[in-house]
Structure formats: C-alpha cells, structure tokens
Amino acid sequence: MRFRAKIADIGCLNHFTRMINTIAKLTKTCTLRLTVDKLYFILSDKVANGGVGMWCELSQGNFFDEFQMEGVAAEHNEIYLELTPENLSRALKTAQNAKAVKIKLTNKNCPCLTVAVELPSLSSSSRVVTHDIPVGVIPRKLWKDFREPAVPDFDVSIYLPVLKTMKNIVERMKNLSDSIVMEANLNGDMNLKIETELVSVTTHFKELGNPPWVSENGSQGSTQERDPESMVEARIDIKKLLQLLAGQQVNPTKALCNIVSKRIVHFILLHDDVSLQYFIPALA
C-alpha cells in the first residue's frame, strides 16, 4: 500500500488548501478515500441518529502534478484513512509561498501522511518543512460503511441564494433560537424561519429557481404532482447550518438543497472540480 503526490502549481495549492480548510470547519475527523482518479473526504455519521453526513469529491488531476498510489490489492486499488482534517489544514498553512508540496503515506511508529513543504530560500538549496500527520488505516472489511450516499427521495429541490447573504441572516437568527425552519416550494421560493414563544422571524427569498432533476422515466418523481405554491419544510439545528455556511472558503458555482419533509435537508455545493454534499437531519 503506497501513496505519494505532489502539487507544484501555486493556484492549485491555494485551491486545495481552501478545500481542506472548509472540510476542517465541518468535521473534527473524517475518512479520506484515495483512488487512482479521485480523493474523497467522507463523514458517515448516522444521519438517522441526529448526526450530519458529508461527501466531498475532488478530481486529483485538477490539483496534483504527480499522483501515484497502490491500494491493498490490484483488484481493490483504493486506500481508506481516518484523518483529522485540522492537522492537514495546519500543515498546509506553512505552504502559502511554497515552491512545491509533497504528500506521502509513511510509517513512523504509526501510519502518517507526511507533508513536505519546499520553501524558497536565498541560498541555492531549498528549505523543507515536514509535517507528520497520524492517520488510521481502515481495513477493507469496513469499506462498505463509506459508500456514496444516495440522493434522498426529496419533496422539493431549490437553488440557494448567495451563501454569504444566507450566512449573515442565519448568524443573526442564531441569537434567537437553537433551530431554524427551512421551507421551499416548486415556484423557486424559500423561507428561513425562527419561531419561539417570544418571537417569530421569517426571511423570504423569491425566484431562486428549481433544479431540473429528471429521473430515468423523464419525470421529477414525487415533486411532479405537488402544488407549486405548497411549501415543504424541515426544522434543523441552526448551528449545523451555520457551520456549513461559515466554513465555505470556496465560492461554489452552484449551490442547491433538497428537502425531505420533516426528515432531512441535503445540500449540494459544486465548484468546477469539487463537489460537496452535506446532510442535516430534521429535528423531532
């Protein structure tokens, strides 16, 4: 089992760093899945038990100048590692002006991701700062627990407003309540609501648009027969929503959410070579 990669392009390095910073804001620990073509950062908390879920997918060819890996066996050419993304984020902070960054799977008393940051120097020789990040190797018998989650059978799908605007609104609302109601319809309308015994606050968004989800038979499934004006809602933990909005360091080209009535809100953020899915379960 081997893995080594190199980033030499400063633009790619900054983009990769922003992605890792975003993931570090969303979770303390996650699973890093390595394949020949892609990297995946996975959080598979049991959403049914109140935990959030995350699936972040990066195409390695858009970030790395060199990328070599060998999995546990030829027929299972993948590697699964348990990782603390904050540790990787800290290591990359030293790489802001780096000439190159090399990442390698090593064994130094325990399995590590070794990040070697090559910094410019006034002399002919470069300075190299090395970080050893402990990781856990996940055995193959557990890999089935980290498969891509299915898109839920949603009642409404809607594009989100500008995330920064949404974040500013939710930040103010969190001082009033621990939970927030997200509701939307098939006319492109979305509301964010706070309702307590003392106060009721609603922010309305109009004409956001609804993504053209089409199933194999050409219909939109359960959304097809729904009254376009009818609102579908889910009440979620406001801190979990704010964690997603405040953690974004890559401005997505598309952002949308799918709402399963009173059960789950599923967010999808897309940016060229990166996709991030985030699942927040509804509160009882």
TrEMBL record:
One of its GO terms (biological process) is nucleotide-excision repair. It holds the Pfam family Hus1. It is found in: Cytoplasm, Cytosol; Nucleus. Keywords: Cytoplasm, DNA damage, Nucleus. Component of the toroidal 9-1-1 (RAD9-RAD1-HUS1) complex, composed of RAD9A, RAD1 and HUS1. The 9-1-1 complex associates with LIG1, POLB, FEN1, RAD17, HDAC1, RPA1 and RPA2. The 9-1-1 complex associates with the RAD17-RFC complex. HUS1 interacts with POLB, HDAC1, FEN1, PCNA and RAD9B. HUS1 does not interact with RAD17. Interacts with DNAJC7. Belongs to the HUS1 family. This is Checkpoint protein. It comes from Eublepharis macularius. The gene is HUS1.
